[in-house]
Amino acid sequence: MRGAAIDRAAPRPHRSATMPNPHLRVSRTGPVATVVIDRIEKRNCLDLPMWEAMAEIFTDLSADDSLGCVILRGAGEEAFCAGADIGRFGQDHGGRAKDERYAGGLGGAIAAIRDCRHPVVAAIAGWCMGGGAALATACDFRVGGEGARIGIPARKLGIWYPHAALDLLLGIVGYPVACELLIEGRVLEGAEAKSLGLLNRCVPDAQVFAEAEALAARICEGAPLSNRFHKQALRALRGPLPIPAETLAQAGRYTETEDFRNAVQAFLEKRRPVFAGR
């Protein structure tokens, strides 16, 4: 029954049309699906195929009327998601066509989570940085541990955060805190993130996943059509982004800057980048 508590039996694999990436696992327990970013050796960071697969998975889950909630988490306890795989930038970027595909993959993953008809809960243990923070803010609820570290180090790589992710962040924490995260580059730990509205719940680290599952169970006790309506209505009230298409496209042009290329090389060489402003 949809209103029942989560079945505590072992989760079964979610039967979707596709299982598009080995680093993204989907399981199902009753009316709750859990998506796990499983790349522990890289702190669960995502490359282009993973961004694209994330969008495919959430599009598939959104179409499943038997679901009541989705949980998004990282494998292990060290990281929810440390963001984009910078070591893969040489393969994922290079030329306008590749850059546009990457921007589309990232933007598609964010949009698919944001637009999923079912409520989505992010279970944040450990690092939640950059693109990981974008995924978390696309979710409807964020449960984090006291030791969680949430930040957006885009400025250290000469990266420009996309407008869709900026809009989500701005709607959650407001302009002053968004500036602290993006321009000052602050990294927030669990309790402070909760006090600033970035987390809905802050719990001891060992309780993050249990609390996320309990929250999903409470969500599923409600009428699914009501939950879906309210999620859609709240999103609709914000309206579309008032940004021209050409301005939206410019967000991905950071890859054409000297600062970006130098910063990526500095990251790979484990040294501090020097920015020239061009």
Can you describe what's shown?
With 278 residues, the protein is of the alpha/beta class. The chain has 2 domains: 24-221, 2-enoyl-CoA Hydratase, Chain A, domain 1, CATH 3.90.226; 224-269, no CATH class. Helix content is 43%, strand content 16%. It contains 10 helices and 11 strands. It has helices at 48-62, 89-92, 96-115, 131-138, 163-184, 190-195, 208-220, 224-238, 245-250, 258-268, and strands spanning 12-13, 24-29, 32-37, 69-74, 79-81, 120-124, 127-129, 141-145, 149-151, 187-189, 201-203. The strands form 2 sheets. It has a 7-stranded mixed β-sheet, sandwiched between helices. A 4-stranded mixed β-sheet has the order 5-7-9-10. β2 (24-29) and β3 form a beta hairpin. The chain is globular and about 55 Å long. The model is unreliable at 1-12 (pLDDT under 50). Belongs to the enoyl-CoA hydratase/isomerase family. One of its GO terms (biological process) is fatty acid beta-oxidation. InterPro entries: ClpP/crotonase-like_dom_sf, Enoyl-CoA_hyd/isom_CS, Enoyl-CoA_hydra/iso, Enoyl-CoA_hydra_C. Residues 1-24 are annotated as: Disordered.
